[in-house]
Amino acid sequence: MTVPTIALPDGTPMPVLGVGTWGYAEQPARRRDEIDSLRAALDAGLTMIDTAEMYADGGAEELVGEALAGRRDEAFLVDKVLPSDASRHGTVEACDRALRRLRTDRIDLYLLHWRGRYPLAETVEAFVELRDAGKIRAWGVSNLDVDDLAELDEVPSGDQVATDQILYNLVRRGPEWDLLPWAERRGLPLMAYSPVEQGRLLDEPALREVAERHGATPAQIAVAWVLDHPGVSAIPKTATPARMAENRAALDVALTGDDRAVLDAAFPPPDRKRRLEIL
């Protein structure tokens, strides 16, 4: 049940499909289902688990740590530091807190959640320190547009960025104008969050039409469309074990030219620059 991978700039393989945990650990009654979902994800080969210190004020990290108990080596763990903690000292402290909550000694990919008041150079300096200490394997960013990435490229060690996690789906196609081409030229993988637009895409007629052609679900088509773009991974959020198998099956969908035409007609690509959207 091996999931295909994308090579990070240093050659490290990153799964193209994983699981987001935004919204986890917010309702105690759902905790068992959420833990079971993450374990079901590992069983299905969905080993990339994305979380953040912001999610439930660290509660999602704790839940992920519980779910991965005894199985940490199976997972590719992605975490994010808040901009308010992203000074050099604050980033190191935030990472140490995250490691304790996650019950692990390392994070595979540690991201700046979005840009804040601290200079990028300061955050990158902390990332390099953490990587050299073995606490993280690689570092990246989230919600940064082309101009931010170009600025990042100019700071010391900024060219070591491993990914940019962005909002990208059929109704958020702005990145296709410049961010996707920019990243592809530089060999920078992108990671798409909310590929199903938090479920709001599921009733779209065009998605249902394409899904019927493939004997698939609209969610699978939405995820497959994101993964159809070279160098792009996806982290749909799912909180039930059964849905993990559904997400995994999105990898088996091969979109045709006709499928793409139907989806382009319903969700046109951008005709101008649009600022990167954030949820």
TrEMBL record:
Matching Pfam families: Aldo_ket_red
Top-rank taxon: Bacteria
Domain spans labelled NADP-dependent oxidoreductase: 17-265
Protein's UniProt name: Aldo/keto reductase
Taxonomic source organism: Actinomycetospora chibensis
Species lineage: Bacteria, Bacillati, Actinomycetota, Actinomycetes, Pseudonocardiales
